[in-house]
Amino acid sequence: MTQDIKAAVQQQFHQVAANYRTSSVHARGVDLAEMVAAAQPRGHERVLDAGCGTGHTALTFAPHVASVIGVDFTGAMLDQARRLADERGLHNVDFRLGDVEQLPFARSEFDLVVSRYSAHHWPHPQRALAEFRRVLRPGGRLILSDIVSFDSFVIDTFVQAIELLRDPSHVRDHTAAQWLSMFAGAGFAAEVVFTWGLRLDFADWVARMRTSDVNVAALRSLMATAPTDVCTALLFEDDGSFTFQGALFRAQREQ
Ligand SMILES: C[S@@+](CC[C@H](N)C(=O)[O-])C[C@H]1O[C@@H](n2cnc3c(N)ncnc32)[C@H](O)[C@@H]1O
What we know:
7 strands; 44% helix; alpha/beta; Rossmann fold; globular
């Protein structure tokens, strides 16, 4: 049965929300502290976390800023985020239902927009960037962290293929160069401030997303016949675990 890609993303995350609250990739990870360091908050900031999921990024920023609003269009993910905020006793965080490509906020409402591991689900990232520009005050900052793909066409095709097999609602891991071009087009001066290798344990990776058995078999088959360039770039291990690359962008809204 076919459905709108956004409905597919919501349906996918609705059924796995609890897994994302406990996922070590999301709850921890070197990029969380690097996002705060890149933002250099001084304590007065009003922050938007776009595609907040179960809230790990919003809750990391909360102690450093005045307030955080996390937005996500999957209600079950927000329920988990509220639960985490309660557990941590954080009261300057609010979670709201909304689409990052059509934000329910007025112009210049935020000093800082952050987003982590969500952008590869957005069908129109340029629309999201235009929305971030609209809701940021002039000079405000955007810190975006995500998996990025490779400039090599061979490796890029492989990355998108395994992402799609694992999660049929996957849209695209853009390359860092593609992101920088989209930032510039949306009126942001942007740079890559941190990169890292994101090791993914194969069994965890597919269990977290409840990938179907048939797709797990297809993943294993595709990986077994991957070209040498792909095996080298993704640091394939015997059990199917591998390493994606992450990039953290700092962008400033031009006046
Ligand atoms: C992997 S989770 C986010 C992880 C989270 N930011 C963190 O740091 O742990 C991806 C989230 O993006 C959300 N998402 C995807 N597309 C969206 C959109 N257009 N608008 C709002 N949320 C979106 C999904 O609902 C999902 O909760």
